[in-house]
Amino acid sequence: MTTLAQTPRRTTRAPSAPRGTTGLAGSLRRVGSLVRAETTLLLRNRTALFNGVALAPAMVAFLHFSGALEAVVGDGAGASVVGAFALTSLICFALMFVVYYNLASAYVARREELVLKRLRTGQCSDAEILIGAATPAVVTMLGQLVLGGAAIALWIGLDAPANVVLLLVAVLGGTFVFAALAAASTAFTRTLESVQLSTLPIMALALLLSGTTLPLALLPESVQTLAAFTPLHPVGELLTIGLTGLGPDGDAVGFGETFALAAQPLAILLAWCVVGAWLAARYMRWEPRR
């Protein structure tokens, strides 16, 4: 009886991904590459660069020296209250123009140039592509807030914030919401030239009902109730509470009580984060319409 020798079985191993392209490190590397590319394009655009550096201090100077802030807040308000309102308005406008409008323009421009389509065929995930394109706009907004905040402290007056946590939540949450809405807006924006029209309804309604451009007390109660559920209003509420620490009656409250005052706007902002993420995932258009 003979014994047959068994031949070792050859196994074919699937080619492994290049080192450094998987996991968190690979994701950060890909996002970093996209950020560098977008930043290079931003630095070449002198108009956008000038707006990012000089627009915020110029806006603060206009509001201060024209007396517009006192007209909206009231002549009897203290300098710190006026300064808090100015910073709140600055952040809200930055979210709308620097984040929402600029990102909608960037996403549509990259889509029409087929950049997004090429990126999706590579190793980048959808989230990495969106984050990479959004990061320069977010950094520009933060730069505006630093310069604008310094101008407010110099010309108007600004006390130390009552609750820094609420300020961070408002800025980060608002940035996420309007970056997501910018991605969703590509669904009804056919060309780069039409961005001005397609984004106008959201920008106008959000700013009008935020309480920074028009006192909501002048509007009917039903409109005031509706305004509380718009995406920019909870950001303004959180900023106001975090900066001033004042309750509805105008009296100062403690650090812990500011969280109780912020419960409703926090819940609304969180809901908008969920809605914005769903809208971006559902309606973001990655390829041009032909």
Helix/strand layout:
Layout: H1 23-44, H2 46-65, H3 68-73, H4 79-112, H5 115-120, H6 126-155, H7 164-185, H8 195-198, H9 200-208, H10 221-227, H11 233-244, H12 255-261, H13 263-283
Helix pairs in contact: 1-6, 2-4, 2-6, 4-6, 4-7, 4-11, 7-11, 7-13, 11-13
Notes on the structure:
Residues 85-281 form the ABC-2 type transporter transmembrane domain. It holds the Pfam family ABC2_membrane_3. This is ABC-2 family transporter protein. It is a multi-pass membrane protein. It is found in: Membrane. This protein has helices spanning 23-44, 46-65, 68-73, 79-112, 115-120, 126-155, 164-185, 195-198, 200-208, 221-227, 233-244, 255-261, 263-283. The longest helix has 34 residues, at 79-112. The chain is 69% helix and 0% strand. It has 13 helices and no strands. Helix 1 (23-44) crosses helix 6, helix 4 runs antiparallel to helix 6 (126-155) and helix 11 packs antiparallel against helix 13 (263-283). The chain has 290 residues and is mainly alpha-helical. The relative contact order is 0.13. The chain has one domain (31-283). The protein starts with 22 loop residues before the first helix and ends in a 7-residue tail after the last helix.
